[in-house]
């Protein structure tokens, strides 16, 4: 052991004395600071026993409360939670509040708790101060807990909301990644919920949503999550999916459960559910992608008839992207003159003459070509452009009708479709009135077509507009009758002048007794209500005409007479109306329809004009491709085909047609008597021509330029061979 010299020991002692002196000075300074503090300060060890109390605290507490304070802080610290202390010994008559704060410190080299009380009156005791502070803290805790609950829960159903659902979904994705399993993501939208809300009231709607939540909860496992996102939309994710079939089972269970009747306020209510399903990670690797894909699938389920489920496919996504592109392009279509009108004739069944046309809008997109109306019209309605485009259609059709009159052609009805959304625009009737005045059209030959669904919208403005339009002398016709609500009360209450029987029923009148009975009932009702016009849509078979005539239909439209055509083509038809002798064989009596295939526009026009005068129905094509396409879409009695054409020539087109006929014979049981005659037209004929013609299936030949008498004889020969 090392020994220190006396000098060394004395030096060490002096150092210790100096340190003790410094420590005593600092302790005195600290005590002076604590004693002079305006706050009452108490220091306890971690078990709550008092280690120090300053003068201000003595003044607050008094000698009788020192022991109470000792016990109080022991309870305070032993609880382990400073917010749960419960003090009851207080005088409720003494007003005043205090602020209690605490912090963990070291005191005398040991852990301790420092308490200080501020802004306390001399009349109050420490118990009162602590009670007030505790009450405020407890209220704050409850408020915070309530806010947390409201932030992550749906207040109506108690289910997780979007925020909580997304948090839980992200956690589930991590678990799925670790276990190499899938997650099924559902979006459920209630069908016909609005009807319940509107008829029974919003309180009933809320009760229905609560019951829906309860029913869906029993369809899933505890590990799965159900959330209400808003309105009548719910989200679900299913964990640990091994196959998509598992998701199908749950979706079917939900649809079945929600299809059962609900009892709301003692009344029965029924709804359905449309469910869109996608899978993680196959269809998306983040919540946003899954929501988008499931939403697409859900709308597909609704479009397919509602109350069903549908899995997302990439083909759906492609269609949505195309729709988005078209939605962007359609905004410029009207400005860029990409819309145009075609007109489909409406023909009097008795006389066979054209009595009207339906104006039909078409869109020629510069990038994609002709866009079908069933694709772009819904986009017009969704984007709100239907009002501007509808006004353009009305004005363009009226101007065309006026032009026909100025050419001295017979007056015929111009029928124009109106979307239900157009009647929601203010003063639509005024625009119609101004258009009539500006174009000078005779309103007795103007007709507005509306759908049955329009009358289900209880809108006074709409009713007023229809009545005002009718008062101008414009006829109102109900389109596609029989496919919507078909309420007879609407026909009686509102100014409806006629109706059009939907093609769905017309197509079946020769083969389906039910369709025939429905068409008969519709026409009988229309006659009983004294409606002026009964038009059969989609007539394609000449044998339908006598049946429709017997039932009471006065006119028809369809491919039997003509597909939608240009204004110039209608002019030709109308000229034929006034030039054909009534004693001539009318095309509608025999249904003689000819396809003329000619690439030379002059030859085509001359031949077509001569055939129209003889009463035939003529379609034209300019090459073999158009010929085959027309043949696929229509029924013809005969084809007149130019042999030498660019692209696909007459030989090649004839071969294609015979191949189609052969397939029809095999698939539909048609016999060889349904073989269509093909007459070849050529400027020269030799042995090679004749051999190739017979090999390709051409039946007969005419030398160009064609003499009209020879052409008529040839047509009569081939058309009459089966009679």
DSSP helix count? 25
First and last CA, distance: 141 Å
Strand order, main sheet: write it out.
Answer: 12-13-15-16-17-18-19-20
Category from helices, strands and their pairing: alpha/beta
Strand content: 15-25%
3D shape: elongated
Fraction of residues in helix: 40-55%
Keyphrases for this structure?
723 residues, 48% helix, 25 helices
Task: Describe the model.
The protein is of the alpha/beta class and 723 residues long. Helix content is 48%, strand content 20%. Strand 23, helix 23 (650-668) and strand 24 (678-682) form a beta-alpha-beta unit. Helix 12 (386-406) packs parallel to helix 13 (428-439) and helix 13 runs parallel beside helix 14.
Please outline what is shown here.
With 723 residues, the chain is α/β, with parallel strands linked by helices. It is elongated and about 150 Å long.
